[in-house]
Amino acid sequence: MKINKRLHEEGTRAILITLAVSVAITFLVNWAWPSQTVWHYLLYAFLTVVLVLTVRFFRVPIWRKTTREENAVLSPADGIVAANEVVMEDEYFHEKRRQISIFMSIYNVHINFFPFDGEVTYYKYHPGKFLLAFKPKSSSDNEHNTIIVKDKKGREIMVRQIAGFVARRIVCDLQPGDESIAGEELGMIRFGSRVDVFLPLDAETKVKIGDMTIGKETVLAKLR
Q1: How far apart are CA 74 and CA 115, in angstroms?
Q2: Of these residues, 22, 75, 101, 193, which one is catalytic?
């Protein structure tokens, strides 16, 4: 799915609701207390900030260029690297993998991107809890989507979209057989959460905990 607009279509409803609520609150406040005071202006400022943040949340970074490096696994999300460790992956690989977790705040772009070229070979939605996304158990216990991408050399990586305490909607419309093109949209998570990437143990990692990542630009690792 190519991204060619400045606001994501998922934001239309949220932006219109925010605008409608802001207008309704402004009307009711002015009807009940018509004389303008400093509290009125503070309310207007607060409602404006909420509307701007809502619009900003659904921004699409059409100005970005996809990093193109041989064997590179790109970051599927904007955020901060919250984990970089070897774990046992029990859903698909059933073996140890290197897990790199990216925590997204409400200020980040929340579109998720394919990390490298290939084909979607596995996709599964898992209902679950809504724990704080930076907790380790959120990777398996929270509501999440699991996506496996396989390239022409047979190398596979897993991308896991994880809902969080605030994020209550994961957007992803993939099926096995879909093409994966590095830097194109994979989906999105609304209002802050986390994305995990599971790599082969021999992958050469390029990030460490605390690093900032930029979706489809930052190289997380190089595959052997």
Answers
A1: 4
A2: 193
In this structure, the dihedral spanned by the alpha carbons of residues 36, 41, 47 and 50, taken in order and rounded to 10 degrees, is 180
Distance CA 116, CA 183 (A): 7
pLDDT digits (tens, 9 = 90+) for 37-83: 999 999 999 999 999 888 877 778 888 899 999 999 999 999 999 99
Give the bridge partners for 120, in sequence order: 149
pLDDT for res 3: 44
* Cα distance between residue 91 and residue 128, in whole Å: 15
> Contact at 8 Å (CB) between 191 and 168?
yes
Say which residue the tokens 């064997």 belong to. Answer: 71
pTM for this model (two decimals)? 0.80
For the chain, give the secondary structure using H, E and C: CCCCCCECCCHHHHHHHHHHHHHHHHHHHHHHCCCCCHHHHHHHHHHHHHHHHHHHHCECCCCCCCCCCCCEEECCCCEEEEEEEEEEECCCCCEEEEEEEEEECCCCCCEEECCCCEEEEEEEEECCECCCCCCCCHHHHECEEEEEEECCCCCEEEEEEECCCCCCCEECCCCCCCEECCCCEEEEECCCEEEEEEECCCCEECCCCCCEECCCCCEEEECC
Answer yes or no: 193 catalytic. Answer: yes
**Mean pLDDT over all residues of the chain?**
87
pLDDT in tens, 111-158: 899 999 999 999 998 886 655 545 555 455 678 899 999 999 999 999
